[in-house]
Amino acid sequence: MKKKMYKSKKNWVVASVVGLSFLGGNLVKAEDVPTNEATNEIVVIQQTADPTDNSQETVSPTPAETVNQEMTVSGDQTTPVQPVTTESDKEVVVNGVSDEVVETPLQTENETLAPVVQDNKMETVPVVTEVQAKDTATTSLAAVAASTTLPLTSANVMDGKIHIKYNHPLNPGEKIKFAVWSDVNKQDDLIWYNADANASLIVDLAKHRDYGIYHIHTYNQYQGLNALKITIPKPEILTEIIKQSTTSYDIMIRNVPNNISFVKVPVWSKLNNQDDLIWYTATKTDTTTYKVNVQLSKHQNNTGEYSAHIYGFDKYLNKLIGLSSSAGFSVATPQNATVTIVNYDQNNPTFEVIVSGTKDTKMISSVSVAVWSEDKDQDDLVWYKPTIANNQAKVTIDIKNHSNLSDNYLVHVYTNYTDGSKVGTNLGSYKIENNQPVINKIHANLTTSGIAIALESNTVATNAQIKYAVWSDANKQDDLKWYTADASGRVLANYENHKDFGLYNIHAYQLRDGKMIGLTTATITIPSPHVSATIQQKSPSTYQVSITNVPLYISEVLVPTWSKLNDQDDILWGKAIKDAVGNYTALIDLRDHQFDLGEYAVHVYGKSRIGKQTIGLTSQGFVVDAQSNIPKNTIQQSVNYIVLNHVPSKGVVDFVFSQKASDKAIRAVKLDVWSQENKSNLSTYNASSIINGNLSLSVNQINHRGVKGNYYVNALVTFADGTVENKALGNYILNASYDIPYYNQKDPRWGNKTYGYYTMGASGCVPTSLAMIFSSLSGKAVLPPQVADFLYYSTNDFNKSEIGTTTTGLLKAVSHFGYQSTNLITQTDLISALKAGFHVAGAIQYNKFVGNGSHEMVYKGYQNGNTYVYDPYTQRYCGWYPVANLWNERSTFTSDNLGVSAPFFKITNYI
């Protein structure tokens, strides 16, 4: 099949036979077609797709021509038709720019460009572009074209898209196609587009990916209709390079349009074939400005010429494009810093070395200064490493750090720069005269923590490394310890590092260049303890121990105290209190020792940091006698009273009151007596019977639930005339032991006695426990059968409905025998009662004391979380047990908890 093409005046569009096949069989024949017109030979580029397809079509990137001659196809012959006459293509300028923007290739033969990752999701930025189209019309359409005010085809650019419109009314069945391509790379981006039903089309620039001249040709299925050319200018930016310092430059990129989503700037020096090439990502500083900071250190600190190109990622084209090739910048080779010695004087032991740079010199990275005296071949060589600030370094040289002798001192300076260079400077030799006497003296004193050691020296510099060797004379240096001093030459030799008293040796050394140089020695004595203690009675029941001359190495003083009665059963280790001057005091309270009478032993121990041990310091003692007030005492000059029969071990004391004058007769006397601070064991004694002018009252410890203590006695005397006098009669120790007698429910005397269906031995834990408590409170023997008889014959709560005694029966028995009961609801209540010395009855279950069911027992006393248990069933189980365990094992049986919150009761002989 032969092929022909249509040719316009300027541009060629090539259409293959396949491309023209959309004409179908209804070809349009023009009138007056010259029969003798020659057939033009054409070069055909095969299209990649049929242009009748409704999708875009792209031809291969081969030069093409546009023909303006219509032809018909019949069989394998082609017949020219009337040519479509068009005017010359008019170039349309976008945004008022008439010249075509040609991107200057940025890559040189020495430039290596890094790949760029494109982001297809970049937000499009509107670019409004208006274009004017070239008028094109066939002879048959001339009249129509002449009558319209719009170009046949119009195009404008907006938001990265070309908006194309065929403005002529469409004939029925007429379909419009547009061929679009850029001038760049010979139609490699040519795409055929199908217009929509309104003969419109929107072309995304990303499909063509170029700026510059674009060609838009319009076709219907019969002929070419129009050829249009527009220019889309490339973004134009401005660049400026600002020198910030000798090693830092800022590249400013301005007028960046908003369709550029990011900016990349490759920078390199012209040395060594781009081996220092770095692609910088510019920082956006405002809506149209970007900045890159270039540090020469990242470019090997190269000097000379630097190149900088500007690239931007264009969201419209969806690719990185070259924006500019800046003029670059030039870096001059900086000079070295200056190295000098200042403040030098032959008679001054110090001078300074200064390495000084400026913003125009090389940047200093580090400085090392080597100094030594000429004598003894660098044995006192010291390297100084000053800090760098503002491109300067300064260090003070002190001959104390060296031999500290009159000598020539040599100074070498080594300067390292940030560009990697290193320069050595020999500053020469400097004569220094030192005529001062050498002083090296150790100062040592004892503190509460150890030996405080300091060095006084005019041969050692402030920051010299000083070490001390410290050891005692005893046992051949077995406690030798090395200590490193601080910058001022001070250190603390802790007592804990040593273990002996007596003479201690201290040697001082200077560590210089790995060698220990001896400076001086000293000694100090740590004396063994010689403590004094005195005891003074502060009240009838308290004594104060005063302890003096306690050594500083004693961290804590302990005072164990006990009475010599019952073999230290009351020993108590008290902790002494230290005052501001280093003396200690400890308080001894007789209540902690059951108010025992007789001799008391007091020992004093100290926790010594030396040897980390507790050592005995001294011992003392005192005697507690039965106390009595002055036999005759006076109340309001009208009444005398005397104290009789004060026997602490029996818990009794008597008071006898007598009136002195008949006109001030006594009517009655009331005594309030207690030993507990909260008056919880307060009892009142009243007397109104006057015999031979006297009135007597007897105080008994048993009336205060048997608590041992220092009892307060207060008298309220009422006279016949109605006046009343209140008088404190002093303190009296009552320390009778009202031990609980032990009874066993299986005792042969009553164990086989039957109550109902059960024996006393099997069921009598409650009456036996109560008998122990009642006997203790009364001081008289109350036997278990006495309590059991009451429970069985006077109540229905013992061995009636079930074995044993209910809570109701227990409370009835307490009341019947004249005592008071208080339910202990919490573990805290139980502990408080035991601490106060009360008798407690309580039921437990399922533990050591009872395998099945519940069991009543007696509890008395409190020590370190434990209480003493009196088990009425198994005597060998009596002893001290944790209160917490007993509480956790309390009975939960209903019969043990009738009407109460817990099966534990405090039982007293008063409310």
UniProtKB/TrEMBL annotation:
Residues 739-873 form the Peptidase C39-like domain. Residues 1-30 form the signal peptide. The keyword Signal applies. The keyword Signal applies. Coiled coil: none annotated. Keywords: Signal. Gene3D superfamilies: 2.60.40.3760, Cysteine proteinases (3.90.70.10). Pfam families: GBS_Bsp-like (PF08481), KxYKxGKxW_sig (PF19258), Peptidase_C39_2 (PF13529). Residues 71-90 are annotated as: Disordered. Residues 71-86 have a biased composition (Polar residues). InterPro entries: GBS_Bsp-like, KxYKxGKxW, Peptidase_C39-like. This is GBS Bsp-like repeat-containing protein. The lineage of its organism: Bacteria, Bacillati, Bacillota, Bacilli, Lactobacillales.
